[in-house]
Structure formats: C-alpha cells, structure tokens
Amino acid sequence: MSKATLTTVFIAFLLTSSGAKPNGKNKKPKQAVPAIECDMRAGKISLSEFIVKCPANCRETKEKVYGTGVFASISSICNAAIHSGVITNSGGKVIVMKMAGQAIYKGSLANGVRSLSLPNWRESFSVSVGKPKQGVTYPSTLVFVPSRPTTVKTGEPKDLPYSTVSPVTEAPEAEPSSTAAPPTTTHVTIPITTSAKPRATVHKVREAGVHRSETSVTIRRQPHASSASAFSRVQPQSERKQHTAQSNPAFARRDWSHPAYARPDWFSGTRRPTDSSPSVPNTGYKWSRMSTGDPAALDPRPDNTEYEHWLYNFGQYSPAPEEHKPPSETSHTRGFSAQGHDLTARVPELMSQGDPNCKVDIAFLMDGSWSIGKRRFKIQKDFLVDVSQVINVGVAGPMMGIIQYGDDPVTEFSLKQFSSSKDLKPAISKIVQKGGLSNVGKALSYINQHFFSDANGNRGGAPNVAVVLVDGWPTDKVEEASRLARESGINIFFVTIEGPDENEKQNVVETNFVDKAVCRTNGFFSLPIKSWFALRKAVQPLVKQVCDTDRLVCSKTCLNANDIAFVIDGSSSVGTGNFRTVLQFVANVTQEFEISDTDTRVGIVQYTYEQRLEFAFGQHNNKADLLNAIKRINYWSGGTSTGAAITFAADQLFSKSKPNKRKIMIVITDGRSYDDVRAPALAVHRKGVIAYSIGIAWAAQDELEYIATDPDRDHSFFVDEFDNLYKYVSKIIHNICNEFNSQPRN
To answer: In which residue ranges is the amino acid composition biased (Low complexity) (predicted)?
Structure first.
C-alpha cells in the first residue's frame, strides 16, 4: 500500500471518529433547570420527578409546608426544601420526587420554616439536593396540572386543557391524576382521583325515581365553573395566582378574623393542634418579615367584592350544555346545570344580598335513610324550603348548602352554588332520597374535612353552622366526629324528629348522642320534635337560633378568643441583646394567634422597680402592626419587682378585658423578685387569669411555681439561657389550645 493511500485512510479514520470521546462516551449535555416561584406547590406540577430552581428569600413569604421529610403535595416546594436543609434561604436547585399520599403528616420546626401537621392528603413528595445522578436528565420545562375543569366521560379519551399561568410544554394524555389544585385557590378545579372502584357520589346526577349506578360514572363540570371562568377573564393575570391556605391547618379550630392568617383550611380540612416538642429548634419569627408594613399585602384571600363578582359570574347560574348550545356560543360558555334538569341558559340577575344580621355559612345534613320513608323525606324537603325562604340567603347574609347522608354523605349543593332563597327552592325540591342507614357520625366527619372549604364557598368571615336533621337516632357513633368538628369552629345543632322513647333507648347505638354532639349542652343547640307533622313549626325557632351569632360559641377557638398579657422583665441583669431575644420569643408566640379587636388581643407590660405599659389590649388590631410594635419596644434596665408588675398588669390590662375572652398572662423573668409574688399571683388567679411563668438563668423556681396556674408542669418553664427560649414557643401554644379544647361544654 502506497504512502498516499495510508495517509488517506488515516484522515478518513480521524473524520469518522471526531465528535466522540474514547469508549463511545459523548459529552454530557448541560441540565436546563426551570425556575419557579416561592408559592409553587408540588401538586400543581404533573411530573412524577423533576428538578426546579427556587429563588431567594422564600422563607419570608411564609408559604405553607405540611409534613417533615415527606410533605403533602399542597406544600410549597421551596419552603419544603429549606425546611429539609436541601437549600438555604438564598435559593438553589431542588430535585422533587412524587410519591403516594400518607395518612398523617407531622409538623415540625427546622431551618426557620415551621411545617404544619395534616391528617391526610392524596399525594406526597420528597426533596433532595439538585444535583442529578450521572446519566439522569430531568425535563427542562414543567407540565402543570390543568387549572380549569373539564368534562370526562368514562371510556372516552380526555383532552385536558392546561394552565396558562406560565409557559409549559403540552402534557401527554394521562390517567386521571390525583394531584389537583388545592382547595384554597380562587381558580376552581375539579379534582379527578383514581380508585379501584370509580364513584361519583359527591356530584351525583339525580333523576326522579332513578338511582344511577356507581359504576357508570360521569365526572361533570361543576355548575359554578365554566371552562374558562368569568372571574379569570375580568381579573388581572397577576391576581390569578394560587393563594395559600387560610387557616392554620395545624390547629383543629376554625376562625375568621384576619384573612391573612385565617385557617386551614383548610385547613383545607386540616385543622389539628401544632405538634409541640420543646426539643425541636424554632428560629421562628424574623423582623424582616414586616419590611412592607402593609397588612393588606399579606392577605391572600379575595375580599367580599371579588367573591360576589365571582359568584355573580358563575356561582349560581348554570350555562347551557353543549348539545343545547346556540351556534354563536363559544367554548367558554359551555357547562352543565346543577341537577341535570334545566338545560337552557339563564340570564344573570342581580344577586340577593341577604340578611346582613345573619351572616353565617350553614350546612344542613338531611336524613336520607330508608327508615324515613318517602312521605317524611318530602316533609323534610318542605321544611328545608321553608327555612331557605325565611332565612333570606344572600352574599352579604347567610349562605346555605345541603348534604344528604345515608350509608355515606353526599353534597347536594355547596355553599356557593346558590346565592338567593329564590334559587334554593327548586333545587331542594329536586333532591332524590339516597337511602341506606343513618350514619350521622360519618356525615359530621365529612363536613369537617371537606365541606367547609374555600373551594365550596366557605367565606372565612362568617361562622360555620351544621344543622343535623335525624329521624329517631343515628346508626353510628357521633361523639368523636362531633368533637373534631367543634374544635374546627363548627357550631353543631341537632333537630331530632320522633326521638327514641324509653322502650327504644336500648336500641340506640350511643346514649345521649345529642349532648355528645351539639356545640353546648345548654339546650340552645338542640330542637327535639315529637312528630314529623310538627317539623314545620320549628322553622322560625331554628332560624332565630342559627342567626344569633353572639351565641355561636363554638366559633371561638384557642387562636381567636384570648386577651394575652406579656409581663416582661426589663431589669439590668437581662441586658440589651438578651432583651431583644425575649422580644423575638414574644413575637414567635404572638404570630400564631388571630389578631383583631374581635379576636385575640395582646398587651405588654415591661417592668423593673417600676412598671411601664408598652401597649394595651386592642391598641394594635392586626398582626402586622402588633409585630412591628413588639419590635419597637425599648429596653428599660433597673431592678426586679415581679409582684408589683403582676398587679399592674391586672389593673391596666385585665380590668379592661372583654367578658367573652380567655385571660392569659405570660410572665418572663431572669431573677428573683425584690417583692412578694404570691399575693399578686393569687389575686389574678381568682379573677380567672391563666398564668404562665418562664424563668431564665437565675430565676427562682419557687416564685415561678407561685406565679403559674396549676398544674405547674403545664404552666411553668425554665431555661438556662435566653437563646433556648425558642424551645417553648410551640409548647406554650399547644398547652393553651389543649386547655381551651378541654373546657366544659355546658
């Protein structure tokens, strides 16, 4: 072979092997990482595993996180990553892996993020450091869960519209996903969940005299949401962001004070007391959170005007279905009517405002069991029609929903579905008897976990009321379900028709079931009716009682029913730096409560030899102003007269406390008092003040016990240095709520 030929072959070999590394390994392409916002929840992304980049300062947004290690999919991805230590507050890359839902998510405090507890959720996720393993490439764009409802028919292909919140790739056709928009968003989405046995019990189409089989499922668009909601068309794009949960889902109580800090809901369904372990670090509240100084900026919930506008556009009017659609109608106006009967489009009318003196959200639990019979079921419907007409339903007054229970509960219509008494009348008349047993306990659990949510029209600014109609007695136990509902702030009324007589009481599953269920056992929350034919006589008394909001005492929770006085040692032994640590501890405790003039109020006294009222109850009536006021307190310096300070707090604060408030005093001191503390402490105890004492360093144990309410183990705490105060934030809140929830109900 000639030299020229060898040269040609060598050049050809070089050309064929160019662009490849030895052993055939190509250069690894650079991973493109999509950026997300702090409020992005894992459940909004329909990928099972993906990588994202979080921005800086997500911790200050206080976006909710549920769980520890494994998080519920309604959690903020970025704050979950900070909580887990995967990234810092400076942001960074995070790998997210989806997994099955869990029965319980335990909250904790880590890396400055407080995660909350949640009883259960349909989907979970975990986070890890954003460094893909060798050979693993994640999607460079995110696919989002549909943000608009759609019609899905069994056995037919599904063309799901995708969210236009941010540019994403088109999602492939998939099985019904269990990840749906959480119930607190203003953009309503019907969750489509997978199960071995499909069911359509919640939004069941009812035909007169016909019971639809559960296996022939049609998941329909809610009557209140068109394929492109009118609300989204009139609302600026920036205002159509997903909002966080209103309530603190970690506490098992519902409240409605300041919408920026409302619950849960929750949460929503998620309202359990905070897991409290003194051993869990809590860096807690940071002053930078108040940099805006604007409480309205922290309020994620639409105001009344937006709610009414939303309801006006598609809350109560049922657009015509596609098969009856005029030729000029666009896809944005398609939908189904509420009960499947009225298939013609209706022209919107001006909404009823309702009775403003009766602003309550009411769920009626109607008995659909077979024992009631068709005739008495009709009497029950007539009763509910009469109630709906007398109560004057409207967006500024009462809103009304109905759940029918038998073996299982089913929502006939939610709170937001009808906004006038006129529209309720035909809707109630069309309800078809469900049949089955009288499982009231299961129905109460259902309304607590699912019915009173933002997605179903719970307004947050109105008391929640559940009126249970029962023929005879329940066929399951109600005590535990009722307790949890009451702790969620639900006022339970019982209307028992033809209750058990002496001979029948042996057949009752749970004795004294009414007293175990109602909000209070003083007779106000129970209406025994001797005969079905006398039921309509109870209309006026029932309406009067549910509208008496001053007596709806179960609306009060451990977070919104207190006057809390902090009595702070400002003596010379504390020092400026430690005093700031004490103020941060006070802020950490305070931020867990619902702050307003009608909810929890906070006052602070600083003392040395003398006493100084820093601010009184009601002086700062929203959380932002209150936390800023705490920040501005100046260190005093001097001696230590704790007894005189307790007396001063009683005179200046608790003497002006409201009669319906629980009076709580938290004394923080670092040394022995120069005066007697026993007599002042005993005096405030006799006035009904619940006293907590927190001693630091050189505080005297005997004085702490004198100050604290019995038992001492629940009300008196000691730390060896100021930096350990944070350990008792959750413990104190937990004890306050436990004490509230265990109080007598008579």
So the answer is: 169-196
